[in-house]
Amino acid sequence: MTSVRQEDFIASIADALQFISYYHPVDFIEAVHAAYEKEQSPAARDAMAQILINSRMCAEGKRPVCQDTGIVVVFLEIGMDVRWDATMGIEEMVNEGVRRAYLHPENTLRASIVSDPVGARTNTRDNTPAVVHMRLVPGDTVEVKLAAKGGGSENKSKIAMLNPSDSIVDWVVKTVPTMGAGWCPPGMLGLGIGGSAEKAAVLAKESLMDPIDIHHLRERGPRNAVEELRLQLFEAVNDLGIGAQGLGGLTTVLDVKVKDFPTHAASKPVAMIPNCAATRHAHFTLDGSGPVTLEPPGLENWPQITWDVGPGARRVNLDSISRPDVQNWRPGETLLLSGRLLTGRDAAHKRIVDMLARGERLPEGVDFRDRFIYYVGPVDPVGDEVVGPAGPTTATRMDKFTETMLAETGLIGMVGKAERGQAAIDAIRRHQAVYLMAVGGAAYLVSKAIRASRVVAFDDLGMEAIHEFEVRDMPVTVAVDSRGESVHRTGPEEWRVKISEIKRSA
Question: Contact, 280 vs 20, CB < 8 A?
Answer without folding.
Answer: yes
